[in-house]
Amino acid sequence: MTPPYERLTPDLILDAVARTGLMPDGHLLALNSYENRVFQVGLDDQSPMVAKFYRPARWSDAAILEEHRFAIELAAQEIPVVAPWRATDGSTLFHHEGFRFTLFPRRGGRAPEAGDLDQLEWIGRFVGRIHLAGQARLFSHRPTLAPASMGWTARDDVMRSPLLPAHEHDAYAQVSERLLREIERRFSAVEAKPIRLHGDCHHGNILWTDQGPHFVDLDDCRNGPAVQDLWMLLHGDRTERTVQLSAMLDGYSLFHEFEPRELALIEPLRGLRMIHYSGWLAKRWGDPAFPVAFAWAAEGHYWSQHVQDLLHQLEVLDEPPLRLY
């Protein structure tokens, strides 16, 4: 199989950007990204832009354009989301030599401080505003977060992968099935109403400045329960996470009502993400960037620890959900 980005050369990138009407000055800087390929592109007589080249065949054009419209909708409401650049004809998605790409204005910043209650309250206010807009309608071309799409499919990718050692095959098969069955049961019990989400709202996708946070990378936006955009910002032990969640919801609840029953989805969502992450590594292993960046995924120790982590997550699911003060 031909690696997905084998033809994505510097000349192709610069030519692609030039065809949008902008004038590259020849300076390119690769930014950290594995699912897509992202570059800072220098331009003549204006600030650099960020070019994101989408992984071929991952999303349909319609799904990408839904992401763009959501970001533009949020930005129009003065929610600090980095929305795509629009060409003079209004286009945000461009095609060149078999690749699809989008340009974004460059925004600086640093990751928020883990556990900082003031920052979490501030972030919570904006997540609440994102969800207030997100509840207006659902995505039509993007998926809904569910065990079927994020869990069972990822499990199949692992089971088919040569990365999974033969001696861990049965143990992984058993514990992943048990965990996913339990996650499905919890999802059914909660019956959370889906809304449009950021989808991957963690510290790496929030940039902090003196003016507050701004949100980047809506590549994984989808329909799902509101708590999905909150739980990944929690760190530490149960007491610490409870305090952090309360601070975040102090801000969130100013703009959007939070359903307390969704607290019961935090640990099922964590378990789903654990399975999805290993499935992602297995599915993308044919991309040459992955064996270089994630060499430890080819080691037996990773998979034995992963099995133990899934077993532990099964135990965690039996603990009571976090409770608000």
Outline the structure in words.
The protein is α+β, with helices and mostly antiparallel strands and 325 residues long. It folds into 2 domains: 96 residues, Phosphorylase Kinase, domain 1 (2-Layer Sandwich), CATH 3.30.200; 200 residues, Transferase(Phosphotransferase) domain 1 (Transferase(Phosphotransferase), domain 1, Orthogonal Bundle). Helix content is 41%, strand content 14%. The chain is built from 9 helices and 9 strands. The protein has a 5-stranded antiparallel beta sheet with strand order 1-2-3-5-4, with helices on one face. β7 and β8 form a beta hairpin. α4 runs antiparallel to α5 and α5 crosses α7. The longest helix is centred in the middle third of the chain and has 22 residues. It is globular, with a radius of gyration of 20 Å. It starts with 9 loop residues before the first helix and ends in a 9-residue tail after the last helix. The mean pLDDT is 96.
CATH superfamily of the largest domain: Transferase(Phosphotransferase) domain 1
Share of helix among residues?
40-55%
Q: Give the end-to-end Cα distance, rounded to a whole number of Å.
A: 54 Å
Number of strands: 9
Q: Roughly what is the average pLDDT, rounded to an integer?
A: 96
CATH architecture of the largest domain: Orthogonal Bundle
